[in-house]
UniProtKB/TrEMBL annotation:
One of its GO terms (molecular function) is glyoxylate reductase (NADPH) activity. Belongs to the D-isomer specific 2-hydroxyacid dehydrogenase family. It comes from Halomonas lysinitropha. Its EC number is 1.1.1.79. This is Glyoxylate/hydroxypyruvate reductase B. Residues 109-281 form the D-isomer specific 2-hydroxyacid dehydrogenase NAD-binding domain. Residues 17-312 form the D-isomer specific 2-hydroxyacid dehydrogenase catalytic domain. The lineage of its organism: Bacteria, Pseudomonadati, Pseudomonadota, Gammaproteobacteria, Oceanospirillales. The gene is ghrB_1. GO terms for cellular component: cytosol. InterPro entries: D-isomer_2-hydroxyacid_DH, D-isomer_2_OHA_DH_cat_dom, D-isomer_DH_NAD-bd, NAD(P)-bd_dom_sf. Keywords: NAD, NADP, Oxidoreductase, Pyruvate. It is an enzyme of class 1 (oxidoreductase).
């Protein structure tokens, strides 16, 4: 495989690039002084692409790579890749599902509890010496709440299973009911929000879910409501959320993702009761290594003639007839 050329547009973990360097001819685009000229030079020979970060792998880039066979994405979400267009060109797209499911589910439950019980604020309370002046204020609780799952894929189902142990009711919204799932299904997200005290967003990003959580959903969630987003920032209308928090339309929010991350609106930063994380849902060494290994293994498997390990739905393998 050492004659096969692979493009890496943005920095990725060394455990990924080191292994790719051992197996392929690796082009680190971000290291070039003139990336566009360099890409023009190597583009005709690029057969694989390792996609990390939020660099758009769009139609324009795909068209510049006539020999491209596979895009191996780091992450379960791949809304930065035009997978539908890739499929039309016969390019396989892969992601890294399953290996991050438990880590993200753990993080979501931790974020929910931290948001309700105000654990980050309590930590600051101790560090700032305020405990010497009096007790930390009482907080809301997870008790007697109904959790509405927005999406019930791998990660959503893992979160729901964990929440069952807390003795709370779980309901869910998805386009179609899931088979062999006992949780009540709501075809309407707004109706589910009315019956829920917490919304946990796990649905994929992309045009189909852009601003799925809007002002109407937040109003339906109500003044006791909590929004937890560990999916994609694009799924939530961020300005509508800010307004709902400022007007106390909902109680609070715990956010791991943002519309224009790493930029976070100052209005959210200024809200003491909101818990904000820097997109760390899968951010452990163990899980990021597992994700990185799957990026490498997808490329190795493909060029060994064994097919992709985890193709996305837009680029099934073997290809389905159209």
């Amino acid at each position: 495989m050492k004659d096969i050329e692979i493009l890496v547009p943005v920095p990725m973990r060394e455990m990924i690039t080191d292994q790719l360097d051992e197996t392929f001819i690796l082009h680190r685009l971000w290291e070039q002084t003139d990336p566009e000229s360099y890409l023009d030079e190597v583009a005709p020979r690029i057969r694989g692409l390792a996609a990390g970060g939020h660099r758009a792998i769009d139609a324009a880039l795909l068209d510049r790579l006539p020999a491209l066979e596979i895009v191996s994405c780091f992450g379960v979400g791949y809304d930065h890749v035009d997978a539908a267009y890739a499929g039309k060109k016969g390019v396989i797209v892969t992601n890294t599902p399953d290996v991050l499911t438990d880590e993200v589910a753990d993080a979501a439950v931790g974020l929910l509890i931290a948001t309700l019980r105000q654990f980050p604020q309590a930590d600051r309370f101790v560090r700032e010496g305020k405990w010497l002046e009096g007790a930390f204020p009482l907080t809301p609780s997870l008790r007697e709440r109904t959790i509405g799952m927005v999406g019930l894929g791998r990660i959503g189902h893992a979160i729901a299973r964990r929440l069952e142990a807390f003795g709370v009711d779980v309901i869910y919204h998805s386009r179609t009911p899931k088979q062999n799932v006992a949780y009540p299904h709501y075809p309407s997200l707004t109706e589910m929000a009315r019956d829920a005290d917490v919304l946990v967003v796990t649905t994929p990003g992309g045009p189909g879910t852009q601003h799925l959580i809007d002002s109407a959903v937040l109003e339906a969630l109500g003044s006791r409501g909590v929004l937890i987003n560990i999916a994609r920032g694009s799924v939530v209308d961020e300005q509508a959320l800010i307004t709902a928090l400022q007007n106390e339309t909902i109680l609070t929010a715990g956010l791991d993702v943002f519309e224009n991350e790493p930029e976070v609106p100052q209005a959210l930063i200024d809200m003491e009761h909101v818990v904000l994380l820097p997109h760390v849902g899968s951010g452990s060494v163990h899980t990021r290594d597992a994700m990185g290994q799957l990026v490498v293994d997808n490329l190795r498997s493909w060029f060994a003639g064994k097919g992709p390990l985890t193709p996305v739905v837009e680029t099934p393998y073997p290809p389905t007839s159209r």
